[in-house]
Design goal:
The complex is a heterodimer of chains A (578) and B (282). Chain A has 18 helices and 21 strands. Chain A is of the alpha/beta class and 578 residues long. Chain A has 3 domains: 6-179, Pyruvate-ferredoxin oxidoreductase, PFOR, domain III (Pyruvate-ferredoxin Oxidoreductase, domain 3); 198-379, Rossmann fold, CATH 3.40.50; 456-569, 3-Layer(aba) Sandwich (Rossmann fold). In chain A, strands 9-8-10-11-13-12-19 form a 7-stranded mixed sheet, sandwiched between helices. A 6-stranded mixed sheet of chain A has the order 2-3-1-4-5-6, with helices on both faces. Chain A has a 5-stranded mixed sheet with strand order 16-18-17-20-21, with helices on both faces. In chain A, α15 links the parallel β17 (469-475) and β18. Chain B has a single domain (15-280), classed as Thiamin diphosphate (ThDP)-binding fold, Pyr/PP domains (Rossmann fold), CATH 3.40.50.970. An 8-stranded mixed sheet of chain B has the order 2-1-3-4-8-7-10-9, sandwiched between helices. Chain B has a two-stranded antiparallel ribbon with strand order 5-6. The longest helix of chain B has 16 residues, at 31-46. Chain B is of the alpha/beta class and 282 residues long. Classes of the chains: A alpha/beta (578), B alpha/beta (282). Chains A and B meet through α1, β7, α7, β9 and α9 of A and β2, α2 and α9 of B.
Chain lengths: 578, 282
């Protein structure tokens, strides 16, 4: 038996079968036994019924994408086979329930019939088939087998009778698998165990916001952002913060603006439809220079679109949504760890620059779990907004004072002699309405000019791959994961590829990008939207020609898709699937 | 020689201490002048320090009011004064928060926020200056204009009926509901003062005519009357009865009850990131 470095296991069934719970516990078990994990899941947009899949990629080295072909498929029913067999690797393993369907004749890999319903039934727990499946998979492939009971206890331990019957189902699954004659080569074992976290992207955003000192949250339920709101609802009352579930997204962001005007660090979280509704208010925050953090967990659009699929198609509205010249900062994390880090940045930048900050996550990142190395919290200190210094004389306070760096001291109500009205009308340094041509030019330049230094920062990009290469990839958000995978695979083949992940989309860090452009000949820009929104942005901002590579199926890129394009651009043959 | 205690004389705020230097942009004769004066009177009556008050508004002639006060102000976008005021009040319960604006803001574009604000019953005082017309956009019909109202946007007459603002907030759980008239500033100041002193959601509907596009001074003077002395403000049915009256326009406190008691919440502790992250450790 050979030990594999990397395995992709997919559990697929009907909504209600518990395949998501199975996958989550499997990911926990693998992580607890020291493996790096990266999960991916799709669910129907409906509450009951419809196909569900949960995928776990586990590896001895860090993993940054969902993986390529599927090594192991556990199909709970015929539909699961129909939907997923095209994704199987050539030497894949199939686990199937013979009471649900017969082994498909076209399948060429190793198949194990697992009557999972019957196994669960035998221990008197028909509904425990997901837990029994967990036992089967772990016993066959070694993913943290000895950790499973603890995990089932932690997940289902609230009711004693339920726990006992689930543990019985788990043991039945393990026993069944141990009696099978193992005919496949997959066995994952950890080389080293050390301290790690297992978190989803949304959990990391909540943790990042709390670390950044969030004091107020208002939101409206929307997939895939709702559990950010739920996390805040649980935590903010415990730390003396303010929270409200608003009547709509407009109310949510306006409440945040009200709280931030009051001097508190405020955040909302939504998805594309909500961001559309917030556009006017974001312009207002930009105009009145009120800090606010807006998380957009993107899903497939336009309109209601694909509520339970990922897409990177809200870039344009994040950058340009709203009327008038309204500056804002836009950040995009690529991984669960970056969800934590960039949320802290989002608060600090909003406070420092007194402007709205939009954090662009997406569905795949919201719900996937990853193993995360412990955060170095000292690297993420809190930055507060500039406040007036000392006591003020009557009528001297200028809320929008033109300072050297164009950032003005922002008072919170309650300070004597500093009363002012924050208005969305064009205003002068005192905040009073002033529509004169000279003033509008001055204040427009102030609002944009204060953000200009960010264009020259080297802090908001990540550089990977070769120092110089024919092909250079520039990407953003979760597409950076498969891009890094492709750069790694190309490196194994001794094909040098350079890569730049841009974490700040507005203002665009042009100095860092220009530097990168000097190191490559062809710029490839992969992104998950139809228009090539980021490619167009780069072309418009930098006056260069890039090669746009788009995908618009509601699914993320795989690293092999990117690698194939790298091969084509390097004049090489198509890669062979391993 | 006996020691004479030195005391600082109390600061006495006059109504004029609440006015900013900005000259109102309203037409001469606008009802909103009377409302501004009544707010200043009410503030002076409470002796509130201007630094501890924030006045939030939306868009419209009346929503320019915060700029004319020497208090903190948040002049937001059209229809959104209430959610901004609620966010501010939740974040800063130490501040006195008012929301002001017109019938377009509160009863048309922002109507969706009104019942939710009322049912939260937070300590916010709302003053709506209702002129039953869109003034800033120069004379279009509003949700409180009468049926048949001929305006530039309804040249053949408004076909819809006017809504009943007081009935909406009463049915949504507001704990203080009153109506005043800009031409009766003394009564209006008393109503606003009572609203400021009420610890829940206080809604004050003010008839505030537009001299330029819909001059209702004469009409309102004929229609208004004070609620009878025997009206019991704790009687929701009676309040509702007066709230939907159309033939005449009652003034005074329609309804008042004690505000909602806050629900129990955990005792706040400082946040510890490292301790919080423990739940994710494997």
């Amino acid at each position: 038996m050979i030990q594999k470095e990397d395995i992709v296991i997919r559990v697929a069934g009907e909504s209600g079968d518990g395949s998501t719970a199975t996958g989550e516990m499997l990911a926990q078990a693998a992580a607890r036994s020291g493996l790096h994990v990266f999960t991916f899941r799709t669910t129907p947009a409906e509450i009951k019924g419809g196909p569900v899949m949960f995928q776990v990629r586990a590896s001895n080295s860090p993993v940054r994408s969902m993986g390529d072909a599927v090594d192991v498929l556990f199909a709970f029913n015929r539909e699961a086979w129909d939907l997923h067999h095209a994704d199987l690797a050539s030497n894949a393993v199939l686990l199937y329930d013979p009471e649900e369907f017969e082994l498909p004749t076209e399948f060429r890999g190793v198949a194990y019939p697992v009557p999972i319903g019957a196994i669960a039934q035998e221990v008197g727990n028909r509904r425990g088939k997901n837990v029994a499946a967990l036992g089967v998979v772990a016993a066959l492939f070694g993913l943290g087998l000895n950790k499973l009971e603890d995990i089932v206890r932690a997940k289902l331990g609230k009711k004693a009778d339920l726990l006992e019957s689930n543990l019985a189902a788990l043991r039945a699954g393990i026993t069944y698998a141990q009696r099978l004659e193992k005919r496949d080569p997959f066995w994952m074992e950890s080389v080293a165990e050390h301290e790690r976290y297992v978190m989803t992207g949304n959990q990391a955003i909540v943790a990042g916001a709390l670390h950044a000192g969030v004091e107020f949250f208002a939101g409206y339920p929307i997939t895939p952002a709702s559990d950010i709101m739920e996390g805040m609802a649980a935590m903010l009352p415990q730390i003396g913060g303010g929270y409200m579930q608003a009547e709509d997204e407009i109310a949510a962001i306006m409440a945040c603006i009200g709280a931030s005007y009051g001097g508190k660090r405020a955040m909302t979280a939504t998805s594309g439809p909500g961001l559309s509704l917030m556009s006017e208010a974001i312009g207002y925050a930009s105009m009145t220079e009120i800090p606010v953090v807006i998380v957009d967990a993107q899903r497939g659009g336009p309109s209601t679109g694909l509520p339970t699929k990922m897409e990177q198609s809200d870039l344009n509205i994040a950058l340009h949504g709203g009327h008038g010249d309204s500056p804002r900062i836009v950040l995009a994390p690529a991984s669960v760890a970056e969800c934590f880090h960039l949320t802290v940045w989002a608060f600090n930048l909003a406070e420092q620059y007194q402007t709205p900050v939009i954090l662009l996550s997406d569905y795949s990142l919201s719900f996937r779990t990853e193993t995360v190395e412990p955060f170095d919290l000292n690297k993420y200190p809190r930055v507060d907004r500039l406040r007036p210094n000392g006591s003020l004389a009557p009528k001297q306070y200028r809320r929008y004072e033109i300072t050297a760096n164009l950032i003005s001291p922002m008072v919170a109500p309650g300070v004597a002699y500093a009363q002012y009205t924050a208005t969305g009308l064009e205003h002068n340094e005192y905040g009073n309405p002033d529509y004169t041509p000279k003033n509008h030019a001055l204040m427009t330049e102030k609002r944009w000019g204060k953000l200009a230094p960010l264009q020259h920062s080297r802090e908001y990009v990540r550089r990977f791959g070769a120092e110089r290469a024919k092909v250079g990839i520039i990407c953003w958000g979760t597409t950076a994961g498969p891009c890094r995978g492709a750069v790694y695979l190309a490196g194994q083949e001794e094909v040098p590829v350079a890569m730049l992940q841009v974490q700040m989309l507005a203002p665009l860090p042009v100095d860092a990008i220009n530097e990168f452009l000097e190191q490559v000949e062809i710029v490839l820009v992969p992104e998950v939207n139809f228009q090539g929104q980021f490619a167009k942005l780069l072309q418009a901002e930098l006056g260069i020609k890039v090669l746009s590579m788009t995908k618009y199926t509601g699914m993320p890129f795989s690293r092999l898709e990117i690698l194939r394009q790298i091969h084509v651009l390097n004049g090489l043959a198509e890669p062979v699937l391993s | 020689m006996t020691a004479v205690p030195i005391t600082t004389p109390p600061v006495v705020y006059k109504p004029s201490d609440y006015r900013s230097d900005l000259k109102p942009i309203w037409c001469p004769g606008c009802g909103d002048f009377g409302v501004l004066a009544a707010i200043q009177q009410a503030l002076a009556a409470t002796q509130m320090n201007p630094k501890d008050l924030a006045v939030v508004s939306g868009i419209g002639c009346s929503s320019r009011l915060p700029g004319f006060l020497q208090t903190y102000g948040l002049h937001t976008v059209h229809g959104r004064a209430l959610p901004a005021a609620i966010g501010l009040k939740i974040a800063r319960p130490d501040l006195t928060v008012m929301a002001v604006g017109g019938d377009g803001d509160f009863f048309s574009i922002g109507l969706g926020h009104l019942p939710h604000a009322a049912r939260r019953d937070l300590d916010i005082t709302v003053v709506v200056m209702d002129n039953a017309i869109y003034g800033l956009t120069k004379g279009q019909t509003s949700p409180t204009s009468p049926r048949g109202h001929v305006t530039k946007s309804t040249p053949y007459g408004q076909s819809a009926q006017p809504l009943h603002p007081l009935a909406i907030v009463l049915s949504s759980g507001a704990s203080f509901v009153a109506r005043g008239f800009s031409s009766q500033p003394k009564q209006l100041a008393e109503l606003i003062k009572a609203g400021l002193e009420h610890r829940g959601f206080a809604f004050i509907h003010v008839l505030s005519p537009c001299v330029t596009f819909y001059d209702t001074y004469k009409l309102y003077k004929e229609l208004v009357y004070n609620l009878p002395a025997d009206h019991d403000p704790s009687d929701l049915d009676a309040a509702m009865h007066y709230a939907v009256e159309r033939e005449r326009l009652p003034l005074g406190i329609f309804y008042r009850r004690p505000p909602l008691e806050p629900l129990p919440r955990p005792t706040p502790k400082p946040f510890d990131t490292q301790a919080y992250l423990e739940r994710f450790r494997v």
